[in-house]
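Per reviewer request, we include the raw input and output of the structure prediction for the construct analysed in the revised manuscript.
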Amino acid sequence: MFHPGGLFYTGDAHAAQGDGEISGTAIETANTAILQFILHKGKTLSAPRVETATHYIAIGLDPDLDNAMQMAYDQTVEWLAELKGFDSATTTPLASIGIDYRITQIVDGTKGVHAMIPKKLFVDRPDDYWYRP
């Protein structure tokens, strides 16, 4: 459902699909979601961010897959700097050796890459994940 100014869209739900959706074919399913939005006042983000119990996920979206990858990398570096105060001399090697980059989709005009940043990389970070089932 669309709401003016909502700035959020869930897309279609898939019961199964591999990384990198290459066609419009997946196992479609009904979607019931409970979402919680947390407003971080004074914080400006240049791209969507996702957090799960095990990962921070930086997103790169662009019609060009190379640009989407660059955006995912840039978002990763930005997030690592915010989380740990790392400079580029630290974030660049970490982004290469400790982060998995996955193709989100190539099926339509927007190509997607998501960077899977494992929380286990941060041994001294408190477990402050907001949701516990």
